[in-house]
Amino acid sequence: MNNFCPNCGNKMEQGQQFCPKCGHSSSNQVIVENKSQEKIYNDQKKNQGVAVFLYLILCGLFGYGIYWYIYKSGRLFSVDYTNQISINITNEYTKSTGYHYVVGTGINNSKDTLSSISVYFSCYDKNGTFIEEISDSISGTITPGTSFEFEALTWPNNGNPVKECKYIKSEVRKSS
Asked: Residue 101: phi, psi to the nearest 5?
């Protein structure tokens, strides 16, 4: 009767302790004793190989997805553009309707093309008391060196008109 190694399926002589092909110890192991069991064993080994291959493909795709999300989309790590956007308030006025306007220009001094810029201001009354934060968003293709205009306004505040607004920050979205 022929025996086969349970590790590699190599044919072994009766009573051999170690497989001559792979060196696997047959003591404390069940020796495969016929061809039908050998086929089942080899088929299981092949299926394990396919499963490992598919697992590696899925891990690769998952890894690429993480790479794209972090580095390519710019969603997780973003560049601080605080010092790369110049803001200049050119006019600030209150209309008779009570609306307070902040008008100005800005320049994209970064090396990146941006898809939007939001400009934020804090508004104060004549006593210097904070009233509210206002903003304006500029969308489109804003290439390096390009200037843009903004206009933000506050709603009339119940008898407590805005006296002045101060620039706080800019938030940008980089073009993909």
From this structure: -110, 140
